[in-house]
Design brief:
Elements (H helix, E strand, L loop, with lengths): L1 E4 L3 H18 L9 H11 L5 E8 L2 E13 L8 E11 L8 H15 L5 E3 L6 H9 L15
Parallel strand pairs: 4-5
Antiparallel strand pairs: 1-2, 2-3, 3-4
Helix pairs in contact: 1-2
Length: about 150
Amino acid sequence: MKITETNDFQKIAQLNKSVQQLHAELYPDHFKKSTNEEVEAFFQSIIDFPQFIFLLASFAEEDIGYAWIEFRHYEETPFTKAYQTIYVHQISIDPTHKGKGYGSKLMSAIENFALQHGISKVELDYWVQNTVAKAFYETKGYQKYREVVCKELS
């Protein structure tokens, strides 16, 4: 598997389809069934922001997945110390290629990217009903250190 940085918003939008579909199925009240044009326009609008990095995973000349990561710097406040992280917005492997270790290799690439930039923490979140993501991240050593809860008001 080959992992490269990319600014090809069209490839990222195409590879995003399975992530967006999963979110829309799990949380239909929250996520839209977006059109490819909407998603392409969104990624085109942010693809060159310096804090965002898009990693493209390829195997045998086929694009099979991607990761959207962000450099985040948290300023010191009266309550917290300053720190930097790499935040994983999205990671996805095409469903036809899942279960072959490609997601693990992509996560390793993200962690190596962080270390190469002097950053020792990778943060991410996932939706509670996405039990596959939860299990995947747990096998990679990710631990909860903060939980966010909500209450629907009627």
